[in-house]
User: Which sequence fits this backbone?
């Protein structure tokens, strides 16, 4: 039951994330009142809003990872997971009712709080319930489940496209005003897709009635360890959220045209640095205070705060590299396909389906490889393959054509870049003890989303700044999505070096 609940939670989590990747471009076109074939200037605006909304979503997920991770360590994995799913389901559905792109950004932020929390809570629950020998398989299933949800969004999108006109006629027969129906079915029915996001809310009943709580957590509660989490410490999370908020502002704001590019660059660099410091300090505050209280009770037997915080920062770096690579590059592939075909041939849906199918294969393979060959070697190889396949996807596909070459490269790039989401749920729980596991890995995985948000915002800026083709080492790279996404994929080189700072945990039991 614990595994079923977590898999369903991750499936819908992946579906919620995939929704905006697929319908976001159409939604922004609609809300900005652009026509079906935007100009280059309008494409720049669409890309700008698209990446800002993604960045806001990532910031929300980072905040939710800490908030709901704290809740999971305080009141239990299952109760907190129920609240996280309800949050992301309802507020994703509300996105179908908005009138401005800024409203989508606010609702996506709140929905992301629940999505970020669900990941860390589900991982903690499954890894604590299942035996050590099953960790590789469980991690692979965790990653694959989210990508099955991503795949289902593509299938639903195809089905909705096929019946959209008839569905609109049916809605008219229900007595809805014609202007409402026109709004719901306009621009490929993106509002209907968002409204479908409310479906996972039904899972909360299943969670509360059938899913058992983690016995490891219950043992910690019996020892009194959970009582050291204090609600007042969440003020630190609130302050911490201002940090990534500042990052979004300095990258999203349009500076005066007479301001030099060097001045803008300095403002953004300083704002990003200050934002990361504020976020780090604020998000770590609840853990720091918890460890102080816990250590005062346990004495020398408690794990030092510096070791726990050090591992949280390590986890954030490893997650941030993987997330930045995905959100600043391959997540843009459906929009790139849509642009290449001017919205024809269901290119965005097929691209998302191929990315998701590849991701299902990649996450399972990466988790099993990490279990067999070691965590560090596997991560290094994943970075090498992700860099190569992302460059192939965006540089070697100058046009969509009949779709076969484009979709094949999307499948392979999806398998490689998403493979980290099978590796991370294998490795991150191994860094933390039970009493801080949900918060520790919730911070580690989701703080990486702040780094990814910076990458997504830079991708949006690059998409706007370089609309024309460029020649690099004799290879022509198309402007816009290909040039921006290819540039951001270089983050994988950092991952090839950073992984050797991490401890090897292969064949070691999950810390108690």
Assistant:
């Amino acid at each position: 039951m614990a595994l079923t609940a977590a898999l369903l939670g991750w499936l819908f989590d992946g579906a919620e994330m995939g929704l905006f990747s697929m319908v976001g471009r159409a939604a922004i076109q609609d809300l900005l009142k652009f026509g079906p074939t935007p100009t280059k200037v309008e494409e720049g605006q669409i890309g700008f809003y698209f990446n800002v909304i993604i960045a806001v979503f990532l910031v929300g997920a980072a905040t939710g990872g800490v908030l709901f991770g704290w809740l999971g360590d305080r009141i239990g994995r299952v109760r907190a997971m129920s609240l996280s799913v309800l949050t992301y389901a309802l507020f994703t559905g509300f996105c179908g009712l908005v009138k401005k792109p800024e409203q989508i950004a606010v609702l996506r932020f709140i929905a992301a709080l629940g999505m970020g929390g669900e990941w860390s809570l589900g991982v903690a629950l499954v890894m604590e319930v299942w035996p050590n020998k099953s960790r590789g398989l469980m991690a692979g299933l965790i990653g694959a489940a989210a990508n099955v949800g991503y795949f289902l969004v593509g299938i639903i999108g195809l089905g909705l496209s096929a019946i959209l006109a008839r569905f609109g006629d049916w809605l008219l027969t229900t007595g809805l005003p014609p202007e409402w129906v026109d709004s719901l079915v306009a621009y490929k029915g993106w509002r209907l897709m968002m409204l479908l996001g409310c479906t996972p809310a039904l899972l909360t009943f299943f969670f509360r009635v059938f899913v058992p709580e983690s016995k490891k957590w219950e043992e910690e509660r019996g020892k009194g360890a959970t009582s050291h989490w204090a609600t007042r410490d969440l003020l630190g999370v609130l302050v911490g959220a201002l940090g990534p908020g500042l990052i979004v502002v300095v990258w999203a704001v349009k500076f005066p045209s007479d301001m030099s590019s060097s001045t803008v660059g300095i403002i953004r660099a300083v704002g990003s640095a200050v934002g990361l410091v504020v976020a780090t300090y604020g998000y770590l505050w609840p853990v720091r205070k918890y460890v102080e209280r816990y250590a005062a009770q346990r004495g020398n037997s408690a794990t030092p705060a510096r070791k726990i915080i050090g591992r949280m920062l390590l986890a954030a770096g490893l997650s941030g590299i993987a997330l930045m690579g995905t959100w600043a590059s391959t997540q843009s592939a459906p929009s790139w396909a849509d642009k290449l075909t001017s919205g024809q041939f269901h290119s965005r849906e097929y691209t998302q389906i191929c990315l998701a199918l590849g991701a299902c294969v990649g996450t399972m393979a990466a988790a099993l490889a990490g279990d067999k060959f070691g965590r560090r070697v596997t991560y290094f190889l994943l970075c090498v393959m992700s860099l190569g396949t992302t460059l192939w996807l965006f540089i070697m596909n100058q046009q969509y054509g009949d779709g076969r070459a484009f979709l094949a490269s999307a499948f392979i790039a999806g398998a490689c870049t998403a493979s980290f989401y099978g590796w991370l749920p294998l490795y991150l729980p191994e860094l933390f003890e039970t009493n801080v596991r949900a918060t520790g890995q919730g911070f580690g995985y989701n703080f990486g989303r702040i780094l990814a948000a910076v990458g997504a915002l830079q991708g949006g800026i690059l998409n706007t700044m370089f609309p024309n083709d460029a020649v690099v080492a004799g290879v022509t790279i198309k402007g816009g999505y290909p040039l921006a996404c290819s540039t951001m994929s270089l983050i994988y080189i950092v991952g090839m070096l950073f992984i050797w700072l991490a401890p090897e945990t292969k064949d070691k039991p999950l810390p108690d």
Q: What stands out?
A: The two ends are 23 Å apart (CA to CA). The longest strand covers residues 470-472. The mean pLDDT is 83.
